[in-house]
Amino acid sequence: MIVLATILLPLVAGALLFALPRQDRVLSRAIGVVVATITLVTVIAAGTTSEWSFRWLSRPFDAAFHFGATPTSFWIALLLTVATACAIAASREARLRDFVAQLLLLEGAMLGLFLARDLLLFALFWDLMLLPVFFVLIGWGEHPATAWRYFIYNFAGGLTLLLATAAFGVIYGSTDVIGRAAGPLVGAWAPWIYAGFAFAFLVKTPVWPLHTWMPPTYSGLPAPMVAVVSAVQSKAGLYGFLVIALTLLPHEVHAYALALMVLGAVSLIYGAVIALTQNDAKRIVAYSSLSHLGLIAIAVGSGNPIALRGALVYIVAHGLFSAALFLVLGYVEEREATRLLARLGGLGWKNPKLAGALCIAALAALGLPGLAGFAGELLILIGVYQAGYVWPVIVALIAIVVASAYFLRLYQDAMNGPEVPDVPVRGDLTWPEALAVAPLLAALVVVGVYPAPLLHP
Amino acid sequence: MTLPFTSADWWAVAPVSIVAIAALVVLLADILFARREQRYASIVIALAGLAAAGFVAARQFGHDYNAFFGGFLTGGFATVFQEIILIAAAGSVILYAALGPASRIAGSIAIMLWSACGAMLMSGAANLIMIFLGLELLSLGLYALCATDDRKASRESALKYLILSSMATAFLLFGSALLFGATGSVELADLANPAHVANPLFWTGAGMFLIGLVFKLSLVPFHTWTPDVFEGAPLPVTAFMSVATKAATIAVLARFIYAALPVSVGQRLLLPVWIVAGVSMIVGNVGMLAQRDLKRLLGYSGIAQVGYILVALAGGTPLGLRYALYYLTAYAFMNLGAFAVAAAISPHGEEGADLRNYQGLAERRPWLAAAMTLILLALAGLPPTAGFLGKILILASGVSAGFVWLAALLIVGTAISLYAYAKVVRAMYAPAETGLPEPRPFVPLAWVSAAICCAVIVLMTFYPLIPSNVLPLAH
Fold it and tell me: Which residues of B touch A165 (CB under 8 A)?
């Protein structure tokens, strides 16, 4: 029951927020933070033991409203609730009530996705979690075309997922299969079903060449929303590979592992190189995401147990540092009314807290030992190497070096150097702003120093 | 002289009779009541009649009725179709009330009820004559209804519908005659004899019969009349047409597929129908992209949606019919809900369907915008709506029947449709343009109607409503 409450709470609270006065800015954010914090507590309370199930369909295949955390999804749900609480606390957008409501609805939909134990339910939440982002893109986004690109790309992925789920259900007889020790799907259709899943997962992650929706979406979304989307929604596809594809279609994952690794490696290098050339701070982080998530795709492709453990650590780490980066860049943009590196500079001299936050997040992102990113990267590289793949390790090492370059450039251009002259009043982070990113930064340190709980789920 | 009919026969057609009598009472009330009360009297009577018919039909469900010497079968899936048609009629009658003053309202409602009678007859029709009778009763009413508005477009739509629909009827009738010639019987059940397979007359007849049905379903390549007729017809009539005509025709098609065709003929003869369904899913959805009028948009959307329903019927499995009924029920509520919202905002009656009126609706009428959003998402097959579950059931049925290519076309069509539906959503949530007519103030009936539709669409996701024993009774 607790697990059901975890999912319903943000959905109901998000819907009820619309009952508040339209101009409200204080109450809705307070309620949002409280609700997100309660879900954080309930996720921990539910653990991996609480389950809830209710019969949905018995024909053409068994399906159930079956919720419950798996050892993998528990950590992602935890990441999601932390990221959402921080994002809501950091929200300063216009029409704040509606914006917070969308964040809560997004949290609820994604909690449903990660806690779903039924494939059909997973597909339902997969589509559902597109809607809040779409509404924020059309209501708060910078350019209308972005909303289309995001929605149609991801909906196309959702549709192939739906078709694959239907075929899976018909052949397998049940979709109530996530996190169970049920046998793999076999048969002539299995590769096609895997193709349907894989397309959806790769679009969502995204992986080159399906990534073109991602940079405009990430740069167009308001910072709190993109923090959650980049931290957690982008993990839905990787979670699908880890928990669904690898357990139900292991032979197909193995048979097409090389393709997955090549796509991952191309994303890794392509994302890193493009990030180096970008002038827009948010786009740098967006392309760095493409690059970092390519590394996880390589880990999935290698199939090595150490690499897969590392993938989970890196999923959590990337969630933490990308959320922190986007939130801090949101603060920068709010102060400077621009996020072009050419027009930023010298912010760090008068804003030590702002600079410090960006510094920690960027260092975690470039893989500094002692912070979360390093633990994940190292485990993945060791695992992939053990599995007998050397070339992806070399590609990854190159990309990691490039990552240092673009993250240091980001920090350097924004915080150091001469101050930009024509600036109004600049202020350092206020306490509420600092508190909104502090949990993410703290978690980066904790996971970096002590990643053991994630390794032995 | 005594009629050769038993009381069982009369009981089988009781739902149809009740609706027909209700229509007469509506006309009577038009004379008896004062002018101000006429509108509400006719609406209340019509709704009471529809409710009574719905109640009787529900009582019939699960029993096997074989009336008029096998010409009318009900109690099984026909009853579900009848309920859908009754719901469509009720939703459309409510729109008459919501839209404000209109002349000739009692007459319009009476004709609509008689049209519904025809559609209900088609649902249970088991011989060629009964099919034709029901179809004509349905269509004749609709020709008149299309012309009830004073706009020129309304008359144009009536004429267009009359000419094209008559041609479809001619195909159907000629096909029926050939089938009769080939088999010596008008009973659909007698067609299912493998002995007819060698007879070219049988193939020609069945082919023309199917062309007639495809025309009525407005599938490609016989679809071009639909958007024009939908645009011109009065809003309640469009709502009724978009659901009842399709439901009744799908009922006939289902009976033809499941009960009439010899197994050896079935898939060979029907392959063109499935191809047509596949093409309709693409053409209908592509056609939606350029529309600037909600009625035209829903006209094209209907073309594609019927294609989806046919995917469920492909393969002729019993489960397929259940899923087709599930989706059809959901589709009925989606369309009625969409028209209810259109009626609730239309500033001067008919012009409300112009999509420009939806610009910035979220600011001015947030609840209506939310309802419309939910309905459009349901049409696009997004959760948390019956459209999502319906799509997956149809996909499962198509895949298990071996029609993977149809399932793939459905996916492509749905992806295209999203753009068209979401464009309306975006317009509603975008800042309003200036100079647009103000939406109408609170229109209780339309709002309630839209709210009910939305609630049903969401609830059907969690409780698939269609009773499980639909098909065993079809044979």
Answer: 392
